[in-house]
UniProtKB/TrEMBL annotation:
Pfam families: GMPPB_C (PF25087), NTP_transferase (PF00483). PANTHER family: SUGAR-1-PHOSPHATE GUANYL TRANSFERASE. Residues 11-244 form the Nucleotidyl transferase domain. InterPro entries: GMPPB_C (IPR056729), Mannose-1P_guanyltransferase (IPR050486), NTP_transferase_dom (IPR005835), Nucleotide-diphossugar_trans (IPR029044). Residues 259-362 form the Mannose-1-phosphate guanyltransferase C-terminal domain. Belongs to the transferase hexapeptide repeat family. This is Sugar phosphate nucleotidyltransferase. It comes from the Bacteria.
Length: 367
């Protein structure tokens, strides 16, 4: 008989990161609260956890911690019981897990799910818990396969799926012994969490897992190669939002039908505006005549004027994009103004509240 995650399985969500690589998106908003497909990204993670039977989730917060609880409250609107623990000083992934341990209700042998707050995935959460229970592991890790693992730490396993090593980013072809990487979701035996040192920064990836392995603990890997994306860069975040809208990435929290576009009800979009590729138009945003927007996110209250052409870009809340301006692979911060007849290309970022005059930039890149 297949064992499924029980309704009492609880989880920790690690949402304390500063999101430095996502600036200027994260100047005013912590990374998990940046909208993806019309709602804060964290909403998708909470909805998927709830659908897998999780009822109690502890959020490990740090950067801009004060914005989470006013939005999500006690979690009852999502069918969850949420608690919040704020780190006074950043503690790393392992330190954050240890820091919230007192809020857990599980017994010593019970499974506790742990998710990184910046991973968009189609992981079968219940299957990961089932793997953990059936294997008798101390910790189970979601592993995914990538075509080019050079940017990641490698996690080889034996024929039974038991983890045999944690390898740093490979520098030579000979060091690429597997295409399996740590995908950022775990199940811990509750008692193992208490072995993490308290009160100091700890990296679960660099310290906790290697130490457990060297001490003889059983670490189990489960390869699940469904959709997986690290939303750590603006380009990835925009793509993840678009994939949620088109249905390539699964989530029960998308506020509308899957398709080429998602327009929130209070937005105003001109009849001849062309929105494609999973584009999202946020609340109270205004999209003028003759605009073409592909695979992009226009956040709440932003204005896109006549004839602008935008692709693979994110337009911050309250920003204004001038007429005939062309943006491709660009991030515009909250409240920024890009005057008409500008052209910005791959990698360009305009800071929050900055103003670019009319026709002042024809091309910009950080490459």
């Amino acid at each position: 008989m297949q064992v499924r995650a029980s309704a009492t399985t609880e989880a920790i969500l690690l949402v304390g990161g500063k999101g430095t690589r996502l600036r200027p998106l994260t100047v005013n908003t912590p990374k998990p609260m940046v909208p993806a497909a019309g709602v804060p990204f964290l909403t998708h993670q909470l909805a998927r956890a709830r659908a897998a039977g999780v009822e109690h989730i502890v959020l490990a917060t740090s950067y801009l911690a004060e914005v989470f609880e006013p939005y999500f409250g006690d979690g009852s609107a999502f069918g969850l019981h949420l608690e919040y623990v704020t780190e006074e000083e950043p503690l790393g992934t392992g330190g954050a897990i240890r820091n919230v341990a007192s809020r857990l209700r599980s017994g010593p042998e019970d499974p506790v799910l742990i998710f990184n707050g910046d991973i968009l995935t189609g992981l079968d959460i219940e299957a990961l818990v089932t793997t953990h229970r059936s294997s008798g592991a101390d910790v189970s890790l979601h592993l995914t396969k990538v075509e080019d693992p050079r940017a990641f730490g490698l996690v080889p396993t034996d024929q039974s799926g038991r983890v045999t090593a944690f390898l740093e980013k490979p520098q030579t072809p000979e060091e690429i012994v597997t295409d399996q990487i740590n995908a950022g979701a775990y199940v811990f035996r509750r008692s193992v969490i208490d072995t993490i040192p308290a009160g100091r920064p700890v990296s679960v990836e660099r310290e906790t897992f290697p130490d457990l392995l060297s001490s003889g603990a059983h670490l189990q890997g489960m390869v699940d190669s469904t959709y997986w994306l690290d939303l750590g860069t603006p380009q990835a975040f925009v793509r993840g939002s678009a994939d949620l809208v088109t249905g390539r990435a699964p989530s029960p929290a998308v506020p509308g039908r899957r398709g080429e576009r998602l327009v929130l009800p209070s937005a105003s979009v001109a009849p001849d505006a062309k929105l494609t590729g999973g584009t999202v138009i946020g609340a109270n945003a205004v999209i003028a005549e003759g605009t073409r927007i592909a695979g992009s996110a226009v956040l709440d209250g932003a204005i896109v004027e006549e004839g602008a052409v935008i692709s693979s870009s994110l337009i911050g809340a309250g920003a204004r994009i001038g007429a005939r301006t062309v943006l491709s692979g660009v991030v515009i911060g909250d409240g920024a103004v890009v005057g008409e007849d500008n052209e910005l290309r791959e990698g360009a970022r305009v800071w929050c509240d900055a103003v670019l005059p009319r026709a002042s930039v024809r091309f910009s890149s950080d490459q």
